[in-house]
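Subject: for your reference before the review

Hello V.,

The reviewers asked for a structural picture of the protein, and I figured it would be easier to keep everything in one thread rather than splitting it across files. Below is the amino acid sequence we used in the manuscript, unchanged from the supplementary table.
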Amino acid sequence: MTILPLRERAKELFGAAVAAADPSRAVRHHLISHPLPSSDSRGKVHLIAIGKAAIAMTKEALTHVNSDTLGQACAVTNYENATEIQGVDVFSAGHPVPDENGQKAAAHIIDILGASKSEDMILALISGGGSALAPAPTSPLTLEDKAQTNQVLLSNGYDISEMNLIRQALSDLKGGGLVRLANAQTIRALIISDVIGDNLSVIASGPTTPSLGSRQDAATLLQERGHWTLLPESVRRVLSTPRSSESGTSSAADNHLICSNQQSLEAVVSAGTDLSARVIDGQLQGDVSDAAEQIARTIKESDLQKAQCFVWGGETTVTLKGNGTGGRNQELALRVAENLSDLSGTWVFLSGGTDGRDGPTDAAGGLVDNQTLARLDTAGVSLKALLDNNDSYAALKASGDLLVTGATGTNVADVQIFVYAP
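And here is what came back from the structure prediction:
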């Protein structure tokens, strides 16, 4: 088989993974089986949506809310996904680094929560990316303090659970803050997971769930990792001062996981029956270098006598050592290509973020094949030099292997697909 059909097949399978994470379908299924209060209810239903899937989730939820019971509605999402919705206050904000628009959105959410009444219901629609999109720095922190802290975490290989433990400790909204700030007694959260293991306290930093730990836990982690002194002094002061309620919220919110990475992996398997597709690992984590070696080892140790497809899901990390441009999926794809340089046969490997954006780039990830290294050589590009500088975007652009999908309107972490033809 020639390489082009194999590359197209891999993109089709990735498309199936993204389609399976459709936020509208997930919300629809839940609200059909768990209807919202009817028009004769005493209170109002206030909609608060935070995350990369906020727009699609809000549009679907509105079709299930009786107009007589609808209260205030607010949706906060990233710039790429933002569209106007009639009757909804839509905020577009920065991701992965928080910005002033996100802070304004968080303040608006806090106002809605404070104005709610005990007989009202809060319907929270939570998806990946929400942590950065709605920053509510606890006093006396500024947005710049949180942005600097976020950059330290992003640059030093903290995984999503570690990052969100620290973010929760510095926020009024995260780690159960949405529940603590609401006057409404009924809070239902529909949650789309972008984290491995689907820990609800990690997704979007858990605005409706108990916090991951105390401020002391966050401080200890930063000290043990050697990054404590990189933080602004104001952040160190806050983390050294126990919160009045360190245990976070009780289980006051009715939390429902409605979509996750696992469903996307299963969709790839279903769409790839002609390739005997199978999930190898649904919890791919850790540094991209280690993950690439693990993936390549699995492939090389497999019986590659016929066309087949291997699938992984998860979220790796990159420790920045250079000043190049790229993301974890782009770097993972290149490192897998490097590790498979001696593999015979025709093959492709795709690593992509289901949100359509990998790091601060316009690419979702990378789609490499058995000719990628040869194309880089022909272009006179040193893969090692670019990887040493964390410049995976430039390398994939040179080899014609960038995976560009545009914003997808959802986010359930990353998917990796290996397709092989003998």
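For the response letter, the relevant points are probably these. The mean pLDDT is 94. The first strand starts at residue 45 and ends at 50.

Happy to draft the paragraph if you're swamped.

O.
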